[in-house]
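Quarterly update from the structural biology core.
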Amino acid sequence: MVGVLYDVHKELGPGLNEYVYQEGLEFELKNQPIPFEREREFHPLYRGVELAATYRLDFVYMNCVIIECKAVNRINSEHRAQLFNYMRLTKLRAGILVNFAPSFMEIERYFYDADNNEILTFDGKMFTNLNRE
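Predicted structure, tokenized:
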């Protein structure tokens, strides 16, 4: 999957709008035998009740990995929080945060441990504890 992200960045270059990169990524994924969905909608639950609020995941890859696309100067804590909340609310266990805008594309990979309500980095270190006190 990461190779496809690099292909999109290499072809389009830095500094474009997020939606351009999403279209490029969709094009690449359609031309490969990789199952994915673009803009999968979900409604968060509150005490077991589905709320009317609708969120859209940029991409869901192989029905288990959220790909959140950005085109910003640098990935920051708000971008990470968005991905982490999507992972927690959907129970999808893996997430990739990609920033296409810089000359050197940024990619961060995370895993969600639902049993402990924790986000882990790609190398297995705990990133943050999501438990609410």
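The chain is about 30% helix and 35% strand.
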